TrEMBL record:
Keywords: Glycosyltransferase, Transferase. It comes from Medicago truncatula (Barrel medic). This is Putative 1,3-beta-glucan synthase. The keyword Phosphoprotein does not apply. It is an enzyme of class 2 (transferase). Residues 214-304, 309-502 form the Glycosyl transferase domain.
Amino acid sequence: MDLLLVPYSLGPDLKIIQWPPFLLASKIPVALDMATQFRGRDSDLWKRICADEYMKCAVIECYESFKQILHDLVIGETEKRYIVLVIISIIVKEVESNMTKNTLTINFRMGFLPSLCKKFVELVELLKNADPTKGGIVVVLLQDMLEVVTDMMVNEISELAELHQISKDTGKQVFAGTEAMPAIAFPPVVTAHWEEQLRRLYLLLTVKESAIEVPTNSEVRRRIAFFTNSLFMDMPRAPCVRKMLSFSVLTPYYSEETVYSKNDIEVENEDGVSIIYYLQKIFPVILPDEWNNFMERLDCKKDSEIWEKDENILQLRHWASLRGQTLCRTVRGMMYYRRALKLQAFLDMASDKEILDGYKAITLPSEEDKKSHRSLYANLEAMADMKFTYVATCQNYGNQKRSGDRRATDILNLMVNNPSLRVAYIDEVEEREGGQVQKVYYSVLIKAVDKRDQEIFRIKLPGPAKLGEGKPENQNHAIIFTRGEALQTIDMNQVKYIKRSLIKLTMDPLKKKG
């Protein structure tokens, strides 16, 4: 999945396009082999690298990221860190000076590059894990990298030689420090941008798959191709989210499956085929990697391991339900509207700094941001709530709840997992009126609060809602709970993904002109 991601936040010092990693896959290993075996002028080597735009971008990005990571590791005020920073500055200055003069292959032994890269990959792995007990290993790796770079230099640099001699005389490594005066900042301060940078850099350095093979899933390739082709359409400029029409989505539901139970998955039909058998044996013929990816997410090596944990069984129920004709699948698809609106509103409302930090930083807010009504997170939530409402008209929810039907619990769980989802149902109540007990009908709207359903509105109906045409007309009682200028009715079993949910341009023609 990470191979497909474009960085949320660009590096401030990068002057290149940061392509998705799958386009840059294997470029660094190839460039290393090319540089190691090359015999000629710098300009000729760089010309060969630049012949492949993706390879050029990968080399520049890795070099700039390499410098940034080393700088972040030694940032601080202690004397020891200052010395380390001086060493790094001397080496970088020497490298870039030779690059400018086209003498890099003359003054540096390029055969040491694979060894240096191997050490750097090990360092990135340690930084990704950020294990505080591995600080000593990080120091040793940095020391090894310094020695490799020193061996690469044809001409010795006097400042480095002096520092190296002092290190030998004192018996202390250059990157080593004390508890009171550490030479490096490990573990580093972990931010969303830092984690993203490390993941991306690790992929650039290690992945050797062909870009043709990523993604392997044919449905994913179809969606990406469909979306990217649509970007080349001659489209009018879309309004900002604040100015678009607000709308609601209404889905009728009676008693269909909400989420498959464990028994639903295991029971065999008249042909002796169960849902789990189909998903394991037949479905992979169509999309061969989906079951394997699911097993990998659960960290299960064998199919039998899934049934050993309740959490795994719950994940399996949801995974199977999203591939069947269930309410769960429809709700997940329709809620992409809200997610897409928040993303588009972020691009409308975010400052330059917030754009640089990336949308992912907003989707993982601090407790302070959640409580503040002025934070960008709160504004995005409010904007999405103003522009989009989703009501599932689960007509029988009241009866299902009273009878202890599992589907009522599943519907409640859907509301808990999707806080902006609203459910409307018909409540049948017996009331005494004029000395007689009569059945009275109410249209009720509920939401989830503290993992329980909470009533929002209750409207008395003139009589029973069941009409001759069945479920579609029976759900009209819920229209009063929808909001906005437009209403979209989506039947059960429909699916949607986020590329189809960028709706603000679609809504524009519905505005009244003049």
